[in-house]
């Protein structure tokens, strides 16, 4: 018998990959509720979530922004609806802890003049323009409203977007976006195939817009890209490729700086990360009225020269939800997605980022909306991160809710790592698992590490061990002195799953296998 073959996993920043046998190091089939980019040599669990809204089911908050409430005091604002109605209502929280209506409780405060008078709210636009100290939104599918975050006034019909060219009726949440460009401190709003601006309260005069894009496209996302405004457009037909336009924001010039083919799929998210332009598109049943596939595909692309180059693609079953809500957090592009991968639904906040400038962009499922409780008939509505606090708005079984990061040091949500499939370099041979070890930082009092496996065509996991020993830094199992379930024998492939609760930080997974040469499959 040959010497056992060792395998060690001690880097985790390669993120999630679609291929279960991807040869690249540090990659995994799933990473959930772990931070793997801050310290690539270990997986640090996030705190669990708790209620972030004491009236979530009636207020139905679905978008967030930061705005100056008074003097130099900024607050967190949320866009919801008036109880029992569909008109917009804006509430706020203080950016402090230890007092009422702040980040460590679930209460929200109501400023004066904080409700629209009529017209159902559109949650796609909710943006603060500091130059004029106003928050802007949309109602009745056509009218831009403005609100003074200090509670001074609410104006319901600042601009009628139907005065512009070829505007969808009504304008949907996914087809209106706003950006305040740091180069000129001007608010730009994209809707339909139009971009207009607000320059110190002065809006683009009705028709024409600042820029009018081809009518067969609908704007879905915008971002700064150096001095340019980058505009993502999806085909209204749902069939053709999406496009990205670069505009230098000079409305006196009718031509654009660049028109870039963004590839197949409905582009949902466009953002600059570490100086690179990143696009995320959905190709599938929810990615366009005619863009139907047998399986959904979420495609990640990066601008290289003058072309968008795919660097990652994941396949899920039909029913994938990819929203155009986004936020840059610690040089990660965070977004909302629900997708079925590896037979399980994974939903909440995801990120595309990298641990160093020279490394590849990786995908991680950062946070679940409601800890270990799966959503039913879910919608993912909005999110915002403020330092270590993350607020997520969603609905489950048609009931709206908001959760936030627990202000207490609580780690009740299960953080999960599912490895790739391993075959010891001999896919045709049978193996026996000799031993396996999980190492971690000193296990806290409430800490727990569970190790599971599955082999070959299995779809369910078998527990090897559960470690709850305070201050321990590792736990092992072998087939000589069993400390849990008997380790598997006579398999060809194996996969591991580590579950962390109570704040356990995972630093490595190592195992050894015997290749039993007499049991080769000769079929």
Provide the fold topology.
Elements (H helix, E strand, L loop, with lengths): L4 E5 L5 E2 L10 E2 L1 E3 L1 E2 L8 E2 L3 E3 L4 H4 L3 E8 L2 E9 L6 E7 L26 E9 L4 E6 L3 E5 L6 E7 L15 E6 L4 E6 L2 E6 L2 E2 L7 E2 L4 E9 L2 E8 L7 E5 L10 E4 L4 E8 L2 E8 L12 E9 L2 E10 L4 E9 L2 E10 L2 E10 L8 E6 L11 E8 L2 E8 L2 E7 L9 E4 L11 E11 L7 E8 L6 E6 L6 E5 L10 E3 L2 E8 L4 E11 L7
Parallel strand pairs: 2-3
Antiparallel strand pairs: 1-42, 4-35, 5-6, 7-34, 8-9, 9-10, 11-12, 12-13, 13-14, 15-16, 16-17, 17-18, 17-19, 20-21, 21-22, 22-23, 24-25, 25-26, 26-27, 28-29, 29-30, 30-31, 32-33, 33-34, 35-41, 36-39, 36-40, 36-42, 37-38, 37-41
List descriptors.
523 residues; 1 helix; mainly beta; 5-stranded antiparallel β-sheet
Describe it for me?
With 523 residues, the protein is mostly beta strands. Helix content is 1%, strand content 51%. It has 1 helix and 42 strands. Strands 1, 36, 39, 40 and 42 form a 5-stranded antiparallel sheet that branches. Strands 4-35-41-37-38 form a 5-stranded antiparallel sheet, with no helix packed on it.
| Major beta-sheet overview | 5 strands, antiparallel
Note the beta-strand portion.
Answer: over 45%
Count of individual helical segments: 1
Cα distance, first to last residue?
Answer: 23 Å
Contiguous runs where pLDDT drops below 50 for at least 5 residues: none
- Shape from CA axes? globular
Structural class: mainly beta
Q: Strand tally, please?
A: 42
Give the integer mean of the pLDDT values.
94
Gyration radius from CA atoms, angstroms: 25 Å
Helix content: under 10%
């Amino acid at each position: 018998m040959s010497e056992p073959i060792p395998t060690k996993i001690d880097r985790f920043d390669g993120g999630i990959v679609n291929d279960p046998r991807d040869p690249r190091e540090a990659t995994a089939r799933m990473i959930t509720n772990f931070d793997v980019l801050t310290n690539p040599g270990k997986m640090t669990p996030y705190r669990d979530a708790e209620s972030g809204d004491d009236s979530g089911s009636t207020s139905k908050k679905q978008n967030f922004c930061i705005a100056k409430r008074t003097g130099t005091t900024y607050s967190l604002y949320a866009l919801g609806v008036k109880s029992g109605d569909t008109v917009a209502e804006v509430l706020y929280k203080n950016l402090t802890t230890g007092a009422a209506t702040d980040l460590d409780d679930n209460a929200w405060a109501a400023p004066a003049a904080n409700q629209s008078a009529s017209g159902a709210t559109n949650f796609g636009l909710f943006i603060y323009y500091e130059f004029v100290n106003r928050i802007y939104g949309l109602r009745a599918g056509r009218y831009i409203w403005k609100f003074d975050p200090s509670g001074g006034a609410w104006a319901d019909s600042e601009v009628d977007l139907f005065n512009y060219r070829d505007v969808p009726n009504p304008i949907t949440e996914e087809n209106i976006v706003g950006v305040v460009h740091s180069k000129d401190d001007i608010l730009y709003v994209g809707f339909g195939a139009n971009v207009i601006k607000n320059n110190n309260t002065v809006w683009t005069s009705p028709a024409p817009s600042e820029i009018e894009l081809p009518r067969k496209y609908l704007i879905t996302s915008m971002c700064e890209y150096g001095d340019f405004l980058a505009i993502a457009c999806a085909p209204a037909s749902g069939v053709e490729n999406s496009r990205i336009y670069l505009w230098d924001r000079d409305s006196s010039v009718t031509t654009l700086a660049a028109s870039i083919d963004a590839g197949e799929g409905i582009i949902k998210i466009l953002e600059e990360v570490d100086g690179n332009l990143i696009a995320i598109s959905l190709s599938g049943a929810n990615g366009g009225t005619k863009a139907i596939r047998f399986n959904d595909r979420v495609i990640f692309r990066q601008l290289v020269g003058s072309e968008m180059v795919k660097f990652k693609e994941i396949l899920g079953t039909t029913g994938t939800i990819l929203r155009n809500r986004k936020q840059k957090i610690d040089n990660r592009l965070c977004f909302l997605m629900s997708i079925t991968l590896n037979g399980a639904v994974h939903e909440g906040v995801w990120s595309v980022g990298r641990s160093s400038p020279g490394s590849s962009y990786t995908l991680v499922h950062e946070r679940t909306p409601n800890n270990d409780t799966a959503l039913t008939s879910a919608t993912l509505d909005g999110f915002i991160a403020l330092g270590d606090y993350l607020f997520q708005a969603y609905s489950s079984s048609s009931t709206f809710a908001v959760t936030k990061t627990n202000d207490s040091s609580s780690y009740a949500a299960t953080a999960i790592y599912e490895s790739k499939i391993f075959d010891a370099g001999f896919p045709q041979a049978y193996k026996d698992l000799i031993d396996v070890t999980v190492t971690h930082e000193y296990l806290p009092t409430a800490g727990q590490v569970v190790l599971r496996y599955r082999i070959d065509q299995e779809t369910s996991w078998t527990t090897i061990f559960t470690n709850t020993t305070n201050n321990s830094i590792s736990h092992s199992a072998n087939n000589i002195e069993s400390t849990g379930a008997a380790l598997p024998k006579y398999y060809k492939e194996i996969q591991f799953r580590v579950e962390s609760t109570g704040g356990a930080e995972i630093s490595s997974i190592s195992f050894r296998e015997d290749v039993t040469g007499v049991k080769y499959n000769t079929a």
